[in-house]
Design brief:
The protein is an all-alpha fold and 437 residues long. 78% of the residues lie in helices and 0% in strands. α1 crosses α11, α1 crosses α13 and α6 packs antiparallel against α14.
Length: 437
C-alpha cells in the first residue's frame, strides 16, 4: 500500500487507482480462470463481465457512503455510524470483513506458491505448495512489522508493471492462439447450448473475490487530494480496468490453451498455456506476472487488514491487545492475521478459500448496500441503483450457496459453521462491551 506517505503528502488519482488495482489484480484472476473454465468453458469471459457489473453496483454504495462519512475506517465505520445503536451489527461486520481479508490473503499466498513452483518437478505435491504459501505470508508479515515505509513508490511500479506483463501475455496468447475468432464465437455458441445462464451466474458470483480490493481506496481517505472527486474516479476506473484486463486474459487463455489443459492445471493454467506457445520464456513471463500480482496484493492486504483489525479491537469488538501499536505498526494484529490465514491454507483447499472469500465479500457488500439504502436521502443516492445492488448481491450469495449445496455440501457445512462461529464471537464481544459500558 502507499502507506509510507506522510499526511501532508497527497495521493493523486494514479496512486489511488494503483492501490485499488493492487488489491484487485491479486490471485483472483489466476485462481478463478481454471475453476471457471471447468464449469462453463468458453463462456468464462461472459461470466467475468457480469462479475464486473456486480462489482460496479457494489462499489456504488461504498462511494456514496465514503463521500458522506469521510471516514477511512471504510466498511466497518460506515456500518457502525449508520446503525449507531446496534453494537452487535458493528461487531458482526467487523468480524466478517476481517475474515474476508484473511481468506483473500490465503488465496493470494496459495496462488503465489502454485505459480512459483509450477516449473518444478514437485509442483503438484500439495504439502510443499501449502508450506510455501505459509512461508510467503510470513515473509510479507515480517516486512510489514519491520518497516512502516513498506515498499512505497515501488508498490505503484509493481502494480502497473504487473498489468503491462499480463496484457502482453494475453495479447501474445490471442495472436498465437490455435483457434481464430470465428471458431471462438462458434465455441461460445456451443457452450451456450450446453451451459445454462444459471451456471454462468454462479461463476460470476464465484469470481466476485477477484474484484475485492476497490474499497482499499477509502482507507487512504486522509492522505488523498480532493476525496470528493478522486474516490469515485479511482474506484470506478479501477473496476473498469480490472474487468477489461480479466476479460482479455480469459479470452487469450481460451484462444491459446486447450480447455482440458486449463482444467487440469487450473491452479497455474496460464503458465502451462504459455509454455505450449512460447516455451520457457512464456512460462517465466507468466510466473513473473503472477508473482508480482500476488506479492503486491499480499503486502497491501496485510497492511490494510491489520490496521482495520487494530481499529475494531480499539472499539472493544476484538481482544484489546490487538489494538496495540508500536511505532504506529499494529504488530499483534499483523501476527494474528498471518497465523489465521496460514491455518486456513493448511485446512482448506483452493476452492474452499475462494468460495469463502467470495461469499464474505458479497455479504459485506450487501450490508453496505442496505446501509446506503437507509441513508439514501443523506448520501444523495439513486434509489434504483441501490435496490439493483441489493438484488444483484443477494442473488450472488444465494447462487454460491446453492452451488455448494449441490456440489460440495460438506464444504458448505464448513462455511456455515465458520459463519456461525464468527457470529457467536461477534455477539460475545458486543455483549461484553455492553456490560462494560
Amino acid at each position: 500500500m502507499s502507506h509510507h506517505r506522510k499526511r501532508n503528502k497527497s495521493l493523486g488519482l494514479t496512486e489511488l487507482i494503483a492501490i485499488a488495482l493492487g488489491g484487485m489484480v491479486g490471485g483472483g484472476i489466476f485462481t478463478i480462470l481454471g475453476i471457471s473454465v471447468a464449469m462453463i468453458g468458453n463462456l468464462t469471459p461472459v461470466a467475468i463481465l457480469i462479475g464486473g457489473l456486480i462489482a460496479f453496483l457494489a462499489a456504488y454504495s461504498y462511494v456514496q457512503l465514503g463521500l458522506f462519512y469521510k471516514d477511512e475506517g471504510a466498511t466497518y465505520s460506515f456500518y457502525k455510524r449508520t446503525y449507531p445503536n446496534s453494537r452487535f451489527s458493528a461487531s458482526v461486520i467487523g468480524w466478517f470483513i476481517i475474515f474476508g481479508y484473511i481468506s483473500t490473503l490465503a488465496l493470494y499466498a496459495y496462488t503465489f506458491s502454485s505459480y512459483a513452483i509450477s516449473n518444478m518437478s514437485f509442483s503438484n505435491i500439495i504439502w510443499i505448495k501449502k508450506t510455501m504459501a505459509v512461508v510467503i505470508i510470513g515473509v510479507f508479515s515480517l516486512i510489514n512489522i519491520w518497516s512502516v515505509n513498506g515498499v512505497g513508490k515501488t508498490e505503484d511500479i509493481m502494480v502497473y508493471t504487473k498489468i503491462i506483463v499480463l496484457l502482453v501475455i494475453s495479447i501474445i496468447l490471442i495472436k498465437h492462439g490455435t483457434i481464430n475468432t470465428d471458431t471462438f464465437i462458434q465455441n461460445i455458441k456451443e457452450d451456450l447450448k450446453s451451459s445454462s445462464l444459471f451456471a454462468v451466474l454462479i461463476v460470476s458470483s464465484l469470481t466476485f473475490v477477484a474484484y475485492e480490493g476497490f474499497q482499499l481506496v477509502i482507507h487512504a481517505m486522509d492522505e488523498m487530494e480532493n476525496p470528493a472527486k478522486n474516490i469515485p474516479r479511482a474506484i470506478y476506473s479501477s473496476i473498469i480496468i480490472a474487468t477489461t484486463l480479466y476479460f482479455i486474459i480469459s479470452t487469450g487463455a481460451l484462444f491459446a490453451i486447450p480447455i482440458q489443459d486449463i482444467i487440469e492445471n487450473k491452479e497455474y493454467a496460464l503458465a502451462a498455456g504459455a509454455n505450449n506457445i512460447l516455451g520457457k520464456t512464456g512460462t517465466n513471463l507468466v510466473i513473473l506476472g503472477a508473482i508480482l500480482a500476488t506479492s503486491s496484493a499480499i503486502s497491501g492486504t496485510v497492511f490494510g487488514s491489520s490496521r482495520l483489525l487494530s481499529v475494531i479491537a480499539k472499539d472493544g469488538y476484538f481482544p484489546l491487545w490487538l489494538s496495540q501499536r508500536k511505532d504506529n505498526i499494529p504488530k499483534n494484529a499483523i501476527i494474528l492475521i498471518a497465523c489465521l490465514s496460514s491455518i486456513l491454507i493448511i485446512i482448506g483447499g483452493l476452492e474452499l478459500i475462494l468460495e469463502f472469500g467470495s461469499i464474505t465479500f458479497l455479504l459485506v457488500s450487501l450490508l453496505m448496500a442496505i446501509a446506503n439504502y437507509k441513508m439514501r436521502e443523506l448520501t444523495n443516492s439513486s434509489k434504483l441503483t441501490t435496490i439493483l445492488a441489493i438484488i444483484g448481491l443477494s442473488i450472488g450469495g444465494i447462487l454460491i450457496l446453492y452451488y455448494e449445496f449441490t456440489n460440495e455440501w460438506t464444504q458448505m457445512l464448513f462455511i456455515i459453521f465458520l459463519y456461525a462461529l464468527l457470529t457467536v464471537c461477534a455477539w460475545w464481544y458486543s455483549f461484553r462491551r455492553k456490560i462494560k459500558i
